[in-house]
Records
---
Amino acid sequence: MRYLSDIIDGLAFTELQGSADVEITAIAFDSRKVIPGSMFVAVKGTVVDGHDYIDQAIKNGAIAVICEDLPARTTGEVDFLMVADSAVALGIVAANFYDNPSQKLKLVGVTGTNGKTTIATLLYQLFRDLGYKCGLLSTVENQINGKVIPSTHTTPDPIEINKLLAEMVDSGCDYGFMEVSSHAISQKRIEHLVFAGGVFTNLTHDHLDYHKTFLRYLNAKKAFFDGLPKDAFALTNSDDKNGNVMLQNTAAHKKSYGLKTMADYKARILENQFSGLLLQIDGEEVWFKMVGTFNAYNLLGVYATAMLLEQDKAKVLTSLSKLTGAEGRFEYITAPNKVVGIVDYAHTPDAVQNVLSTIHDIRKGNEKVITVIGCGGDRDKTKRPIMAKTACEWSDKVILTSDNPRTEDPAQIIKEMEEGVDPAFKRHTVSIIDRHEAIKTACMLANPGDIILVAGKGHENYQEINGVKNHFDDMEELEAQFKDLI
Ligand SMILES: CC(=O)N[C@H]1[C@@H](OP(=O)(O)OP(=O)(O)OC[C@H]2O[C@@H](n3ccc(=O)[nH]c3=O)[C@H](O)[C@@H]2O)O[C@H](CO)[C@@H](O)[C@@H]1O[C@H](C)C(=O)N[C@@H](C)C(=O)N[C@H](CCC(=O)O)C(=O)O
Ligand SMILES: Nc1ncnc2c1ncn2[C@@H]1O[C@H](COP(=O)(O)OP(=O)(O)OP(=O)(O)O)[C@@H](O)[C@H]1O
Ligand SMILES: N[C@H](CCC[C@H](N)C(=O)O)C(=O)O
Ligand SMILES: [Mg+2]
């Protein structure tokens, strides 16, 4: 229970109708979740306008409303606060309602197109191994000291973020590691959070359905660093074309990591095999269990973050060398007849290229690479032909299939992918809508030693079709087929 006056601390409002001296039981931005005594924040969304649900929120028991436009009729029994930006206001009131938990632990945010889950998860695993109590907010799952809390988003809404951070604080956490998606930044989900540091991974093609242009996507990511306080660190990947741009206007301490260019934290790949990476990292030679050049970047980013958080170098490297990262990222199994299956969450052109070039670099002979890949529905359509093209360029055979069709026709998504296939490669490509059949076909086509990459869904244990999530697990599918490959 909190007083309205406490909850609106720091909120710039242009008008208050009513008294700030009322008790608020909960905050909600969805009228359907309003409980009696709540404050309802009306946010203009991408589909509907929350202002249209103010009446419903009041019917459900809201006693205070934050909005950008006052309704035509207001009732004296409900407090109304007018603000310029309700999404920003939501971040402020959510943080205040939970007593600003981000200020009570060291919160590190990770942003970029690919690698966020991997870096945030490795940081969480590393810091737990170093003996700290920690929390994690990630695409795969949220965790507080080992307790798993299912996640619905890469970065949850402001109420959920602050609620989870408050639970971390109550559980004695010293650190919180979270992914910061570009959607979250532009929708102000991270407003009013106090970060101890921010990490940039890379910026490549994704989410242009939402941001429309690459520049707007870039600026959304950059806004995270622009908002960091001056006592935080801002760590960037200096090998990424936009690495320096990200930190251009930050007040935080600027630090960098890289394999190729000048950087504060440097590493060199000495060996890159299926069993792992040998890196010379900050002058030390260390074996890691993670595979591929992109993971050299992730490991270096994690190492640099740990150094910026003043951890002991030897302990960090020893612990990091044991870690395997997040579920569904370059996970592999071998069939009795030595066919290798890899499940990876590559769902952007760059990730597909990275994972396939890694497979290419580390395969021993001329084993065939068979890729099973689809693209998500209700997501960036422009990446579809590029992902298919990239898959074809780096594979011997490609099976185009469904990812999460969501509300789209899967056959149409596949058609859009087919447009990226070079005519000369067409005969090495087959389209199979049913993902189960697609994986089965890949297994039937594989000879001993061949490598099957099943890309795009990683840890996801469902396939979303028209709002229904049906159980589907790429690794389970491979395991079932592999039993018979003798
Ligand atoms: C496109 C998008 O990002 N949408 C997010 C956004 O919802 P929205 O703006 O579409 O909401 P809306 O449906 O237009 O509704 C507007 C407002 O009216 C309210 N409302 C609506 C109906 C009603 O009956 N009553 C009511 O009060 C809603 O609660 C909302 O406040 O704000 C919601 C609350 O934070 C999010 O749950 C929702 O995520 C949707 C479900 C989603 O799928 N988002 C994906 C694309 C996403 O965010 N992905 C990123 C990861 C991307 C990546 O890097 O890979 C993520 O962070 O997960
Ligand atoms: N540093 C990296 N650079 C490029 N590609 C990477 C990197 N790290 C991981 N990948 C590729 O991207 C995929 C997704 O990785 P990860 O889940 O860590 O990214 P993410 O940024 O969390 O993605 P999302 O936007 O869905 O949350 C991996 O399965 C791998 O194929
Ligand atoms: N966080 C990403 C996940 C994409 C995963 C892929 N399997 C898909 O459904 O497109 C998104 O929401 O765009
Ligand atoms: Mg993620």
---
Amino acid sequence: MGTALIYDEEMTNYKLLWVDPACKIEVPERLTVSYEALVESGLADRCMSIPVREATDADILLVHSEDYLDAVKTTPYKTLEELKEFTLQFGDVYFHPNIYHCAKLAAGAALQLVDSVLTGKMRNGMALVRPPGHHSMCSAASGFCVFNNVAIAAKYAKQKYGVKRVLIVDWDIHHGQGVQYCFEDDPSVLYFSWHRYEHQKYWPHLRESDFDIVGKEKGAGFNINVPWNKVGMQNSDYLSVFFHILLPVAYEFSPDLVLVCAGFDSGIGDPEGKMCATPDIFAHLTHLLMNLAGGKVCAVLEGGYNLTSLAQSVCQTVQTLLGDPVPRPSNLDGPCKSALESLHCVRSAHRRYWSSIRHAADLPSCEISTKHIKLAEDKLDKEEEEKSAEEEVWPQPPKRVPSAIRTAVVLPEGVACPDRCKCLMSAEDPDPLIANKFRENFLKDADDSDALTTLSSLIALAERMEKNEICSGLALVRDISMAIMCVIQHTAAALSNRVLVVCVGDGKVPSHGTDDGKTLVVQFSSKKSEEQKCKYYIPVCLKKGCQDASGFMQAVLGLLLPLGYEYDPSLVLLVKMPDSGLCDTVWKQLIGLLQGLAQGHTLVLMQDVERACVGPTASSLLGDAAPSLGQLHAPLPEDVEAVESLRHRLKADWKLLQTTAPETR
Ligand SMILES: CC(O)(O)CCCCCNCCCN
Ligand SMILES: [Zn+2]
């Protein structure tokens, strides 16, 4: 199954017909530059183009009132003066004789995308639409939005496909208040939004956009607002919120469908957002969502007003949906103080609803939370307009060239090569020099030619991954710790290399290279390790080892991923120790998530008895979405304690582990 792309140039055929500084940024070129960038980069051709359709009245009435729909229906026949008049009843939006038609196409595009994914025809997809949707409400247009495309899509998915739980991730820099109002008492739709807020100083200046608004009645806990109280937020700030709020809750919620209000005004250079996150961050945000709901992710364009930044971010998002490896997360230096305050406030507001963040620190009697600056709104926005926006510049996103071979395997005799994989067995005798080195350093039994062949094949695989000829690999070996040593020593030889070694299960893991940081070892096991702990050797002791999905996933999302992203390895060595107790679905989730690192260069080592695991492992390495884990129960208190105390101890060295602002003396 492929990636759907839904676009129709008819949606460029409306624009602002009068002077309105608040609306002048919403131009037809937003759509053309996005689509043309996809065509130019060859990404459009790799997608399946799905035609738009007009949303029907019934579709629109899933969210909007009849009165509102009837009123909008009159706009095509209005004169310019009547359109201006009609527009005055709403805020920061404009009407045009053709905008009703385009609004039906935008909503219809989202529904076509949902149909393609929920019928199983497509794996995931993106709809490039305008007008956007997330501000429009039951009976009102707002913020360039006429119909709430994503809210309609969520209602439609539930009604037509019986979808039980929908996650809406709104990474647009504005608060989608229309979506919040639509689902605030609905526990079947989890709405997550971050947004520029500045203590209510920023548009739409709503008190109900703050972190303490969590949803109503049965919907309490299913509305997550992350206010950014300063501009200039960077990649670290966004990732920290994913690791410590969105992902733990999303895995606990276990959605059947993920809808993204994909606004790119949260990217660098945008005149509205004034944030500093680079376009490649959207590759990571998309990737981190792609193992939810069995990969059923539908992204619908919302905002984005810097045409360069917008086009790059759209390409980063679509290329990730297509399954291409994501760029390395460059120099993450940890969340800023303001982001940590928001993180802390949101987690403490939601800890009572979600067991995955139950342990979150309670709010100090904090002045941060309810400081709402109510200044004369128009004055504020005016200030905003006047300041000449100095042109931001940022580096081109790195080229993301998929390897010729996605996954290669080194298997013992008699183990079938999984389909879509390349089998590597060095037929010719290994180079005598290397052979001797192996004999000296690794082989217990010098004449063990099998081990020699396996090791030399393993090194050949690692070398070809380094050259990006092969993206990921899987090897079945008899002696795991020997194989680990061999790979670490080989890889460490190249100066710029850093290896993240992730071990699941008990067993001795060589700590070679952890003293100088060339290697970072994170081992999940049920045994306390007596090994001296240092910054680069992190044993995670879980009560049931890797058998309890909740505890394990909490450790992966809140500990392993932040560590891995901050460490930014060139290779991930993922080792499944014998009798790790890890079930296949959790193992596949782990493989899927770890491919966000090292441009997808994951090398999996398993004991040669694990033949049954070769197929499932290969499937995940090939980019197939991991099956959903189902709703997760509360992690064991011991596991929460273990992860929290580790995080507390390590956050001085690893800034992405922080979830609260350092105590201000
Ligand atoms: C889809 C979207 O969230 O991007 C729409 C944003 C509307 C912003 C209205 N205020 C503009 C004030 C001018 N500086
Ligand atoms: Zn926006």
